[in-house]
Design brief:
Elements (H helix, E strand, L loop, with lengths): L3 E4 L2 E4 L10 H5 L2 E9 L2 E3 L1 H15 L7 H14 L5 E8 L17 E8 L2 H10 L1 E7 L14 H12 L4 E5 L5 E4 L3 E5 L4 E4 L10 H12 L3 E4 L4 H5 L3 E6 L3 E8 L2 E2 L7 H13 L2 E3 L2
Parallel strand pairs: 7-8, 7-14, 11-12
Antiparallel strand pairs: 1-2, 1-6, 3-4, 3-5, 4-16, 5-6, 8-9, 10-11, 10-13, 13-14, 14-15
The structure holds N-(5'-phosphopyridoxyl)-D-alanine.
Length: about 290
């Protein structure tokens, strides 16, 4: 079966899907995106992802390309047409196609929209979570508005490639004061020796991850102690546990930071519990 993508109003063969060379997403990274998990035939946390999309678009003054209801329909259609039961759906909106000029287009320009869906074998993520992943730390070099889920991801790309070349999966950005901000495509967490879950506040300097929001709710339900505060690399290396969260990886235990094993070097019980309970509290809407 060939994959299908939704591009500006049409469902096309993924292999043929394309946007104009003067799409502002292509030329200026002038656009935003969302990634939603598809879990057992359900769209996960659609409401929160659509709220964040709206916020990102508002911050960049890009119009929502269609009503929320229509967008929900396109997301579902794309998942359905690709027969995805477990995997992800990707949505990107840019300021549209216009002659290359840094200023916003002066003539009315419809935003461009692309939606793709991909099946991912859940066994892969489960196996990675059983082993845990390694992270490296890199200096924070992104712009201040990382709260906007912009497609401008060059620092993230470079940091993650550096991680891969160092035998790790993720890179944690570290601000000028030595505090971890977040991962290249995940939020960063630790569990202290006193079993307190710590993650950086999302008001500034990180993306407010949807998985992060749900995990905070899971932790509260499980009666776990949580502190939203900054933590340093040294504190993370001395922690009992560490983990990352994102829609595609859920709760992923971190077992090594640079050259230091975390805890006993194996996934910890807190991360494992949070991962197991995640879908109990996430919003799940059936796709068919
Ligand atoms: N990344 N921080 C960054 C920089 C991210 O790119 C992401 C998500 C997150 C976690 O957000 P959420 O829990 O809403 O997925 C945090 C997506 C998955 C990606 O770029 O593929």
């Amino acid at each position: 079966m060939s994959r299908i993508a939704y591009v500006n109003g049409r469902y096309v063969r993924h292999a043929d899907a394309s946007v104009h060379v003067e799409d502002r997403g292509y030329q200026f990274a002038d656009g935003v995106y969302e990634v939603c998990e598809v879990y057992q035939g359900c769209l996960v946390d659609e409401t929160r992802h659509m709220d964040r999309l709206q916020r990102s678009l508002d911050e960049l003054r890009i119009a929502m390309p269609m009503s929320r209801k229509a967008l929900g329909f396109v997301l579902r259609q794309t998942v359905r047409r690709n027969r995805v039961r477990d995997g992800m759906v990707y949505l990107q909106v840019t300021r549209g196609v216009a002659p290359r000029d840094h200023y916003f287009p002066t003539v009315p320009t419809p935003p461009s929209i692309v939606v793709t869906a991909k099946a991912i074998d859940p066994a892969g993520g489960a196996a990675r979570a059983e082993k845990g992943v390694n992270v490296i730390t890199v200096p924070e070099n992104r712009w201040e508005r990382v709260d906007i889920k912009s497609v401008s991801l060059l620092p993230n790309v470079l940091a993650k490639q550096q991680a891969r070349e160092a035998g790790a999966t993720e890179a944690w950005f570290v601000d000028a004061d030595g505090f971890v901000t977040e991962g290249g495509s995940t939020n960063a967490w630790i569990v202290t020796r006193d079993n307190v879950i710590v993650t950086r506040p999302a008001e500034f300097g990180i993306l407010r991850g949807i998985t992060r929001t749900v995990v905070l709710e899971v932790a509260a339900r499980e009666g776990m102690k949580v502190e939203e505060r900054k933590f340093t690399v040294a504190e993370a290396k001395a922690a009992k546990e560490a983990f990352n969260t994102a829609a595609t990886t859920l709760v992923m235990p971190v077992v090594r930071i640079d050259d230091s094993p975390v805890g006993n070097g194996a996934p910890g019980s807190v991360a494992t519990r949070l991962r197991a309970a995640f879908h109990d509290l996430a919003e799940m809407t059936k796709i068919r």
